[in-house]
């Protein structure tokens, strides 16, 4: 009887380890994130961007943990507003571009309610107002913050 309990416990632990092995939220090399040459031609404004993950200077990115297909999406409108979604709520904000169109400041970015803000929602809300510049490449939209960190977005329909 004791050995069957041990085997059951070991199998349960192995199952849990296997389930947690490769999920969104994992740290992956940036080279594993798909690129598309057409992404470099997308405009900042009026494009719907979805967060791929949180990047660092070591060419690693932690994939965002999504709750739904619209999680972590943003649209920069032509009139200085940002519209989008966190993990589970509608979000909005305000932004301004510098005269050289490289600097980007987000003066406000907030969720309509913080109720049920889960997964990477709180980090997304904390990070967006820290953005200070952006670039668009074959990887997508890169919003830079904290000198060596960035948010990576890709266009979605």
From TrEMBL:
InterPro entries in alphabetical order: HslJ-like_sf
Keywords: Signal
Domain of life (superkingdom): Bacteria
Leader peptide range in chain numbering: 1-20
Protein name in the entry: META domain-containing protein
Organism: Rhabdobacter roseus
């Amino acid at each position: 009887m004791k050995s069957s309990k041990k085997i059951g416990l070991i199998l349960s632990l192995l199952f849990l380890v296997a389930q947690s092995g490769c999920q969104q939220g994992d740290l992956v090399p940036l080279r594993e994130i798909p690129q598309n040459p057409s992404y470099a031609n997308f405009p900042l404004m009026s494009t719907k961007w979805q967060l791929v993950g949180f990047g660092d200077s070591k060419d690693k990115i932690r994939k965002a943990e999504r709750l739904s297909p619209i999680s972590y999406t943003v649209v920069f409108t032509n009139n200085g507003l940002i519209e989008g979604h966190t993990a589970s709520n509608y979000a909005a904000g305000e932004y301004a571009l510098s005269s050289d169109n490289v600097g980007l400041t987000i003066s406000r970015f907030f969720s309509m309610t913080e109720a049920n803000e889960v997964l990477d929602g709180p980090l997304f809300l904390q990070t967006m107002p820290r953005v200070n510049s952006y670039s668009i490449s074959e990887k997508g939209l890169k919003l830079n913050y904290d000198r060596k960190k960035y948010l990576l977005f890709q266009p979605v329909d």
